[in-house]
Amino acid sequence: xxxxxxxxxxxxxxxxxxxxxxxxxxxxxxxxxxxxxxxxxxxxxxxxxxxxxxxxxxxxxxxxxxxxxxxxxxxxxxxxxxxxxxxxxxxxxxxxxxxxxxxxxxxxxxxxxxxxxxxxxxxxxxxxxxxxxxxxxxxxxxxxxxxxxxxxxxxxxxxxxxxxxxxxxxxxxxxxxxxxxxxxxxxxxxxxxxxxxxxxxxxxxxxxxxxxxxxxxxxxxxxxxxxxxxxxxxxxxxxxxxxxxxxxxxxxxxxxxxxxxxxxxxxxxxxxxxxxxxxxxxxxxxxxxxxxxxxxxxxxxxxxxxxxxxxxxxxxxxxxxxxxxxxxxxxxxxxxxxxxxxxxxxxxxxxxxxxxxxxxxxxxxxxxxxxxxxxxxxxxxxxxxxxxxxxxxxxxxxxxxxxxxxxxxxxxxxxxxxxxxxxxxxxxxxxxxxxxxxxxxxxxxxxxxxxxxxxxxxxxxxxxxxxxxxxx
Length: 472
Prior knowledge:
Order of helices and strands: HHHHHHHHHHHHHHHHHH
Shape: globular
Number of helices: 18
Oligomer: single chain
Structural class: mainly alpha
């Protein structure tokens, strides 16, 4: 067996970890995620320590959540126009200033709604802009062959930060108060911004080489700095976003599946699971279940990173969905806390792996100049269903009980993805396949009349320029 040092050098010399920009990205993500959790602990503690109580906390969170959802589509459009990395960099700098101001306010006393609301709106809007832009970064850094593993490693780093961050944030708040914890969060945004500023994508390298060849011709080939504003290498017709919405059947199927799965999942985890734990497992048991949810997601990312790419991702996606549905449905009937914890862990493993499969599939399939908008639609489907899901779950748990709600939700998840297999565009999708635009009709000959549209031909060659994901 090779020594650990040799194995580590082999990992760093091949695959995603051989790319300097990707290594920088992982470092920025870890710092950023830990900072997020410092904020997540410090803000409620700061508000609840004053006179505002839960009402003020809920109002501030609404001031954050509404702009976040509203600006997600805008973030996708802007990322495709000026480049995802630029959007992320600007969003991080603005958030660093906003959280820094909040840290100063927190150190002078308990802030009021008039002070908290504008900061929350700014942070929510920046987060909404950042999310779709982040999904354009990995395709700009990595080749198509390394994209799946890169997504898995990126997700793993976020999940490790999610395990470490809450403890670090709680310790900071307990020892020094909310102000220093918010300062750490502001500094984490700055670290993220520095990482983004120093990052060099494959498109940047290609531009530098083309400029060197062009000499003094004045052709700079700028496309936004990260390959998301147009590749400049494909001479064929580029599809518009409207065309993709009309003819991108794979996108239609994924959006429907995302809507159904998140409608079923969010309410189950946020309403049915705590109610089930409250009935017989206690607060400690509930904490164990949430820990299993996090650990399972991390394990799913590890499996995705270590697995070989499959030729038919749709079937892997469907198989994982069946595992998710069965595991979720069995949670109340698996024999108490231990059995429930195992089921939650199995569900989370399959879910973590499945998320990486579908994100990678869309990043490769979508045209580089449209990835931001495509991912903004998916994120809207994921986040926009949350209020409806928890409301439906509250009603369902009240009338059905907590335990019966789990198999209903599990069946909805499994059936949604199995139903997707009835769609040829999803069932026959192959790894590495890209969207091909509808061919334009040929110029009509007046003597022969109009020429009908030619059918779209799906591309089977690797894309030459890509563009994705990060940090918060």
